[in-house]
Write a structure and sequence with these properties.
GO terms for molecular function: glycosyltransferase activity. Its EC number is 2.4.-.-. The protein is of the alpha/beta class. The chain folds into two domains: 3-222, Spore Coat Polysaccharide Biosynthesis Protein SpsA, Chain A, CATH 3.90.550.10; 230-338, no CATH class. The protein is built from 15 helices and twelve strands. It has helices at 16-24, 44-54, 69-79, 98-109, 141-147, 149-152, 172-178, 190-200, 222-228, 232-247, 253-275, 282-292, 295-302, 311-321, 325-338, and strands at 3-9, 31-38, 58-63, 84-89, 93-94, 113-115, 118-122, 125-129, 136-139, 168-171, 204-207, 213-216. An eight-stranded mixed beta sheet has the order 3-2-1-4-10-6-11-9, with helices on both faces. The chain has a four-stranded mixed beta sheet with strand order 5-12-7-8. Strand 1 (3-9), helix 1 and strand 2 form a beta-alpha-beta unit. It is globular, with a radius of gyration of 21 Å.
Length: 340
Amino acid sequence: MKVSIITTIYKAEKDLPRLLDSMMAQKSPELEFFLIDNGSPDRCGEICREYAQKDSRFKVFTLKNNIGYICARNLGIQEVDADYIGFCDSDDYLEPVGYDYAVDKIKKTQCDLYITAYNTVSDGNKVVCEIPYDVGVYSGKQVMNKILPQAFGPLPRKAVLHGFAWKQIFRRKIFLDNGLNFKSKIQPYEDQILNIEFINHCELICIDDVVIYNYVVNNDSITAKLAANFDGQKEWNRLVLFYSEKKCRATTDIQKEALSNQMNTFLYSLFLCAAKFKESTAMQLAKELDRYLDRAMIIQMLENTSKNNSLREKIVKWCLSHHEYRVLLTAMRLGLRLRG
């Protein structure tokens, strides 16, 4: 069995050695580290080649021009020759022998998808992020009934399965046989759609609580930059596209319920970002949001939310469904002031 870990690399020479060192520390000969130099203008390509000389498990694939990390990942899926594939971000790093453990677990279970816990690392502090399922091997109807719904969103007392492709290892054949890939048009939510599509084709999924990956909070990441340079209309357009992509894949009531719960959370986040603009009054912000928000679409997004959601979630739904944007923004600003 061969497991190839695909890493797309661009302008990462500062953090790259940490990742490559952590890869080289894995012991399994069944691991391959497929490094895509995505047209990086710095020393990334040179660093990758240096490590490839030290360890034959490193394979370097060089692109002349940057094609974006999503397209590069899709290219990697096609180019590797492996039974299973995983993904890494160049500013993160692996836990010691974590992927050795994952390889052994996959060999024992013969699963189509391996999902595990991970660490979030911020200012050197690690916090374990658990997977929102009980540990075990799920098959057949269990995959559809117990795993797939939370890929659409959260349910009461059941958290959403976040996308984050790097916390999973996939059977490559499922990608190839079903024409699956990451969809760049819905960045940064492309991994969530991929999760749904992939899980739909799985017969066996292994859920584990062993941490193998360290996700480093990076203020220069794409997601962080989107938050720092908040553009309400662009975020709304992304949410509409994201909702449309998930809605057409939701075939059961529980999937639709989970999706509506997630849209409630996403819309809350959009309004919270808007509420932080101190130079505008709540009335001014409400008018600005009303300029591009589609009220009918919002009602559709929220129509299937869980009846026993939290009070906050119910208030958010009521305000949005009844066009009380100013009330919601005022309440959010009050909450922000109280939290200091």
